[in-house]
Specification:
The chain is α+β, with helices and mostly antiparallel strands and 662 residues long. It has twelve helices and 35 strands. An eight-stranded mixed β-sheet has the order 5-4-8-2-1-10-13-12. It has an eight-stranded mixed β-sheet with strand order 24-25-23-22-29-33-32-31.
Length: 662
């Protein structure tokens, strides 16, 4: 999630070294046109941060970041957009924000300070056990040509920041981004390193012009454009300019040697929690029964872990807050797989380890795997650190085929990778020679939505009827994640609200939700709908869209050009059966349908219609498949053909038929 003018660093607390206001130059006050982006309404003249770690005296560190930003407002749009400022922080994660001060400098040089009493602390996001708060305030006396600036300090208490993300790019162009970092010495053989993503900052240099900042080093990035939002763009960390600060021992390894070595280390660490006793063996024997195939055994064992072992990190598992606190309170450093089995409860990592132990007991040779995530920056083999390998899973081999399991993810079907794991590089700790591999993608037929609508169209253009929908695979996983923590009644209310948003003005009634008893099964939904104005009446003719489930949709890609790659989460398929009974006083005037579209190798599309003899009913069949042959990620140079394909899909989805009065 993004917020206006936010620093996303893992951060903050009371400032140790209070910053003064820097002089405002006559050139800055007089400036009329943007420097980095000619079309920008506002630009940050500079964004500066001082980052350091200070001992908290209890074995942890306080991670402190002092921030200072100055912004030039060029026009009335900027005055409106930047008049209210929010600086978020995660209070539930022992973060705090202090020493906030702000001011407006008018074009004539006069200054208006923000009154401290006008700064409000409020909750801006409340989700489950995580609250995001913000310091919110209004900038006074704004006008075109004004400059606003503010400073604040963020603290992350009792933290051990071996990884610190320094964001170099914001939603506003910046003339100069400066980071001043004071390296922390974790041990004698560890040193601070920095890896830039999507940018080339200046070389780190010691700060010699400020005695208060002795021990700090500085890097800069100049003329940074704004990070723009584009539909179907990769994760922010994969496209924006940022730098990772990390601490590792000195190593001369090359990628070819480093990754196998890391795989062995990670497997050794993982196996410390693996214990196979008689209880583990007995459960494995009972679960797999007479099954002999590795995949069949793995499916049964993964299902057992997902249905019989409660996941303390997911609200869908029915674990109360009290039970969760008690679990972590009594958690031992020596906790292993036998403890997880005995408690019938565990974290995602502990459930994964239990699956590994059960697989070993069942005669399967489980393979430990660490993979990248589409939720973060793409894996770089030359970045010799495991930071980007965030996902853990277990591979099972049968012949030359592999399947991947992670029962620590409650809603994921056994043998299916989560959407962010698919197509990602991964480190497979198999045999004596661990290696880097690329994880497979799920076929489109496994993530499908099937919809049936029986509708009746009135003479005034109102459509009404009954609808059934079924979600499978990743589409079902997404729906289950939306419903986490909701009661059965509130789940149906949630679906109803989304349908009302999808069809503005519609009356949605009799919503019924049917979920599989398995935590990873399909989701079925049915409801009644009445929607006025679905068809447009003009004289003796009436026009209506044939693809009811795509009614009123907007084109996916509008911009003529593209800056970032195009990324789809997973392959999928849609099959719609729509029956529309029209008034007997009308007859079809134009029954042409889009038919088959040429989507190249990445998909298929076909929409046809049939009319029964002497019956005022048109039956529409629509089939759409996307993501064939791994077609989920496209470089910007392919934007024009991809846009053309989706424009054609949109034209077909909004295709209209014409009725005329008999």
């Amino acid at each position: 999630m993004r917020y206006q003018l936010i620093v996303f660093i893992f951060i903050s607390v009371a400032s140790l070294l209070a910053s003064d206001w820097k002089p405002v130059t006559p050139e800055q006050l007089a400036l009329k046109k943007a420097k980095v982006d000619p079309n920008a309404d506002a630009e940050a003249i500079f964004w500066e941060a001082h980052v350091q770690d200070v001992s908290a005296g209890n074995g942890y560190l306080n991670h402190i970041v002092e921030n200072y930003i100055r912004i030039k407002l060029y026009n009335a749009r900027a005055v409106e957009k930047y008049g209210n400022v929010e600086i978020p922080y995660f209070s539930d994660l022992r973060m705090s924000l202090s020493d906030l001060k702000a001011r407006t400098i008018k074009p004539n040089g006069s200054i208006i300070e923000v009154n401290g009493s006008s700064i409000v602390d409020r909750v801006i996001v409340k989700s489950g056990r995580t609250n995001v708060k913000a310091k919110s305030f209004a900038m006074p006396g704004l006008e075109e040509g004004a400059i606003i600036e503010y400073q604040w300090t963020e603290l992350s208490a009792e933290y051990t920041p071996r990884y610190v993300a320094l964001v170099m790019q914001r939603e506003i162009p910046v003339w100069e981004v400066t980071y001043n970092v004071r390296p922390f010495q974790f041990s004698s053989n560890e040193q601070m390193r920095a890896y830039p993503f999507n940018c080339q900052p200046s070389k780190w240099e010691p700060i010699t012009d400020d005695v208060r900042r002795r021990g700090f080093v500085r890097t800069k990035l100049l003329n940074v454009p704004a990070l723009v939002e584009e539909p179907n763009m990769p994760a922010d960390d994969d496209v924006k300019a940022w730098m990772l600060i990390y601490y590792t021992p000195t190593s001369k390894d090359k990628p070819a040697a480093y990754w196998p070595s890391l795989a062995k280390q990670e497997l050794s660490e993982f196996r410390k929690t693996i214990k196979v006793n008689n209880d583990i063996k007995q459960v494995a024997l009972e679960v797999v029964g007479k099954e002999e195939g590795p995949f069949q055994k793995a499916h049964l064992l993964a299902t057992y872990c997902q249905t019989k072992i409660k996941n303390v990190n997911h609200p869908s598992q029915g674990v109360t807050n009290e039970a969760r606190r008690e679990f972590f309170k009594n958690l031992k450093e020596t906790h292993n797989t036998t403890d997880t089995l005995k408690l019938k409860m565990g974290t995602p990592e502990q459930i994964l380890a239990l699956f590994y132990a059960l697989a070993e007991a069942a005669g399967i040779a489980p393979i430990y795997v660490e993979g990248g995530s589409a939720n973060m920056a793409m894996f770089r083999p030359d970045f010799l650190d495991g930071y980007l390998l965030r996902n853990r899973m277990i591979a099972v081999k049968s012949g030359e085929d592999y399947r991947y399991y992670n029962p620590g993810i409650p809603h994921l079907p056994p043998g299916m990778l989560d959407w962010d794991e698919q197509g990602q590089p991964a480190l497979m700790a198999e045999g004596k020679e661990p290696r880097l591999v690329v994880l497979p993608t799920t076929s489109s037929d496994l993530s499908s939505i099937q919809r049936v609508a029986d509708l009746k169209l009135s003479e005034n253009g109102t459509v009404s009827g009954h609808v059934k929908m079924s979600h499978f695979g990743h589409l079902a996983v997404a729906e289950r994640r939306r419903m986490e923590g909701q009661s059965e009644g509130s789940r149906e209310d949630g679906f109803k609200k989304r349908l009302e948003d999808r069809y503005p003005g519609a009356k949605i009634t009799n919503v019924k939700l049917d979920t599989s008893p398995l935590p990873f099964g399909p989701i079925h939904l049915e409801y009644d709908i009445e929607l006025e104005g679905y068809a447009q009446r003009t004289g003796k003719r009436m026009f209506f869209e044939t693809a009811f489930f795509n009614y009123g949709e907007k084109p996916r890609f509008i911009a003529p050009t593209r800056q970032y790659p195009i990324s789809f989460r997973h392959a999928f398929s849609e099959h719609d059966e729509i029956r529309i009974q029209y008034p007997i006083t009308f007859t079809l005037d134009n029954a042409e349908m889009p038919g088959t579209l040429n989507l190249g190798k990445v998909g298929t599309y076909n929409m046809t219609a049939a009319v029964a003899n002497n019956s005022p009913v048109i039956s529409i069949d629509r089939k759409f498949v996307w993501g064939l042959e791994g077609g989920l990620y496209f470089e910007p140079k392919f934007y024009t053909p991809i846009k053309q394909v989706w424009d054609a899909i949109h034209a077909s989805n909004t295709h209209t038929l014409t009725l005329k009065v008999k």
